[in-house]
Amino acid sequence: MSFTEQIMANEVTVRMSFFFGIFAVMAIWEMIAPRRALTVSKAVRWANNLGLVFLNSFILRLIFPAAAVGVAAFAAENGQGLLNYYEVPFTVAVVISVIAMDFIIYLQHVLVHGVPVLWRLHRVHHADPDYDVTTGARFHTIEIILSMLIKFATIVVLGPPVVAVILFEIILNATAMFNHSNVGLPKGLDRVLRLFLVTPDMHRVHHSVEDDEANSNFGFSLTWWDRLFGTYRAEPRAGQIGMTIGIHKYREPKQVSWLPGMLMLPFVGKISDYAINRREWSEKDEK
After folding, report:
1. Do the beta carbons of residue 263 and residue 109 sit within 8 Å?
2. What is the total count of domains within the chain?
3. CA-CA distances (angstroms) from residue 5 to 9, 11, 15, 72, 142?
């Protein structure tokens, strides 16, 4: 069995071990030292948010049995993608791949906020009235399928090593659970980590009900893209404790906290323009 085949054979086990391990750490941390008081029963939110996660996982495995790792292996075997076409040292190829795929995730995130029909799907993620470790994996099934297709296209064009794809998926899942958790870090540590890693306080701003705040801090792992493209915002106007999480128009528990309501949410209401990155705060607010 080749090295690639060995990796692929254990890929699910490795990813699931990291997923459940990090989930457990963040869940315990939230219970011991919650950053904010929850407004909806944790039992209700967790049962429905995680129910959506398991539904999405089942459907993805049904539609895409090979997943991203299989596409990466296929690209490598057929010499497809820039990194398979040019001779690049393995370590360099892994680093380039992880950074490039993170950038694509940032662009995709901006896109789902900027295109009205995609925002209808993505608002399932934002309509959560609270913010904890389960929010990080709460996405509508159709958005998850579209996201996987974008990931496949990225892999075919880029040609990342199989190891890089596995590493990227582990990092993405880990950072999504970390920065969506209902926890806080000491200010000094948070300030240092924000130089390269999205922290819970940084990403929580993105889940504000205020449009200009929700249209900032799009990064999931690396903070560089928000700083480079001017979408970074340090803090919400009302502060981390005073801010309101969710979407103004969608506050009904059965619609935003129960699985049937979440699945139907993209099909509710008329399609209207959604003003992306509305920068209406002043320099004074920034300080």
Report:
1. no
2. 1
3. 6, 10, 16, 12, 30
42 is written with which tokens? 């944790």
pLDDT by residue, tens only, the chain of 287 residues: 555 556 666 777 888 899 999 999 999 999 999 999 999 999 999 999 999 999 999 999 999 887 888 899 889 888 889 999 888 999 999 999 999 999 999 999 999 999 989 999 999 999 999 999 999 999 999 999 999 999 999 999 999 999 999 999 999 999 999 999 999 999 999 999 999 999 999 999 999 999 999 999 999 999 999 999 999 999 999 999 999 999 998 999 999 999 999 999 999 887 655 545 444 544 444 33
As to burial, measured by CB atoms within 10 angstroms (0-12 exposed, 13-18 middle, 19+ buried), residue 263 is middle
Rounded to whole angstroms, what are the CA distances from 187 to 34, 111, 240?
16, 31, 12
Range of the domain at 243: 3-286
